[in-house]
C-alpha cells in the first residue's frame, strides 16, 4: 500500500528501509551516493539546486513531525525577532559553506520549504536569495519555488515575492472541507483557500501547485472526489497528492492507528489513490512521479533533482544535503543548529568526503532503484547495468518476473514504448535487436505505484544479497 510523504528536509521516503532520520546533535553521513548517468561513476558534479528550510508556522498541524518553530496565530511575523535571527543564521550558514569554485554552474533551482515560508517577510527572503547569489550564483531563468499556506499572504506580499524572483508556488491546501481542515489542525479555513487561489492567479503566477492529503480521519470518498474536482477547476499547473503518514510523536500518532476508524482502511486509501490518478490524468495532468502530477512542461524541476539522484545543497534547520556523494543533515533543534553554524564558521565541521564516508555500490544501487521506480520514467537498465554490472540486473529482472506477468511492472524499449517481455534475460541482452530491446522498467499506474513499497523492498533484497563492490570513487 502506498504511503508517500515526501520531504526534501529529511528524505523520508517510504519504501523499506526508510532513509534514516538523523540524530540532531551532529552532521551525520548517510549511506547513499550519486550515480552519474553515464557508463562510469566518477567525481559527481557540483549541486545546481538548493533547498532552504524556513521553519516558521502559526501552529503545528496534527500530522506534522517536521522541524518547525510555532510562532502563534497572532504574532506580528513581519517584525518577529525569532524570524530575523534565524534568517541571519541561515545566511551565515550559506556563506560559510565550502564549495569548489565553478563560476559556470550557478543554481538552477531554489526551493523554500518549511514550515510555512510565506510567513517570512519578503525583505528576509530577499536577503537569503542575495546570499545564495553571492555564494553560488543563481541562473536568470532559475526555478525559484516557495511553499505558501492560505491565510499567510495577500496580493501585496505575493507581488513582492514575484519581484524577488519567486516564480513557482506550492500552495498547501490539503483539503476543501472545513471540518477536515479543522481536524488536521490547519491554521486556515476554506475561505482562505479560495482567497489564496485567487491571489496566486491574479498576481500572474503561472507555475503553481496545489497540495492535497488523502486518507485523513473521517475523510470519505465523496469528500476526496470533491477536493480533486475543485482542484481541477482551479487549474493549477501542478498537483501533489500525499497519503497521510501517521508519525510517532504527533497528535495523530497519539490518537490514531493506521487502517483503523476513523482513518480509512487500506482498501479505501487505495481507492483514493486510484481516483486521484484517474481524475487528474483525465484532466490532462501527467502522473510523472508517485505523488506528483503536472501539466506538460510544468514538472517541478527542483524535485526532479531528487528523483534523478542528483546532488543538492540543503540549508537551515534539519535540512539535508547531498554533496560529493554523501548525504548529511543539520540538527533539528534550533540551539544545536545555531551551534552547528558557529562550528561551520570556525572550521570545526568537516564537510569533505573521507574514505570512510564514501558510499558502497550496494547502497548506491538501492538509491537508484528506489528513486527511479517512484517515477514514470522508471529504471534505466542500460545505465544501471553499465554502472553495477549485468548480474545484478538479471537478478532484479528475475525477481520481478511475477510482477511483470501480473502487470505491476512494465517493460519499455529505448523509444519508451511498452513491450512484451517473454524472456527478461534475453530481451535485455539482445543487443542486436536494439529497437525491441528492453531498456527501462517502470511501475504501472496506478496498480504498480500502489505496490511500490513492496516492489522496492524486493529490489532491496536482491541488492542486499549481491556481493558488494568497492566504494564510490573506486568504481570504474
Structure description:
This is Radical S-adenosyl methionine domain-containing protein 1, mitochondrial. Belongs to the anaerobic coproporphyrinogen-III oxidase family. HemW subfamily. One of its GO terms (cellular component) is cytoplasm. With 476 residues, the chain is an alpha/beta fold. It folds into 2 domains: 49-307, TIM Barrel (Alpha-Beta Barrel); 361-474, no CATH class. The chain is built from 16 helices and 17 strands. The protein has helices spanning 81-96, 122-135, 155-164, 178-184, 190-202, 221-234, 251-255, 266-282, 301-307, 334-345, 361-373, 381-388, 390-406, 424-429, 447-450, 452-464; strands at residues 49-53, 56-57, 69-70, 107-113, 138-148, 168-174, 207-214, 238-243, 286-289, 292-294, 313-315, 320-323, 326-329, 379-380, 409-412, 418-419, 440-443. The strands form 4 sheets. Strands 9-10-8-7-6-5-4-1-11 form a 9-stranded mixed beta sheet, sandwiched between helices. Strands 14-17-15-16 form a 4-stranded antiparallel beta sheet. A two-stranded parallel sheet has the order 2-3. Strand 9 and strand 10 form a beta hairpin. The protein is globular. Mean pLDDT is 84; it is low at 1-42, 351-358 and 470-476.
What count of structural domains? Answer: 2
- Top-tier CATH class of the largest domain: Alpha Beta
Question: So what's the oligomer here?
Answer: single chain
Structural class: alpha/beta
CATH homologous superfamily grouping of the largest domain: Aldolase class I
Runs with pLDDT <50, length 5+?
1-42, 351-358, 470-476
Principal-axes shape call = globular
The N- and C-terminal alpha carbons lie at a distance of 38 Å
Mean pLDDT: 84
CATH topology tier name of the largest domain: TIM Barrel
Number of helices: 16
Protein name: Radical S-adenosyl methionine domain-containing protein 1, mitochondrial
Family: Belongs to the anaerobic coproporphyrinogen-III oxidase family. HemW subfamily.
Pfam families: Radical_SAM (PF04055)
Domain Radical SAM core: 42-284
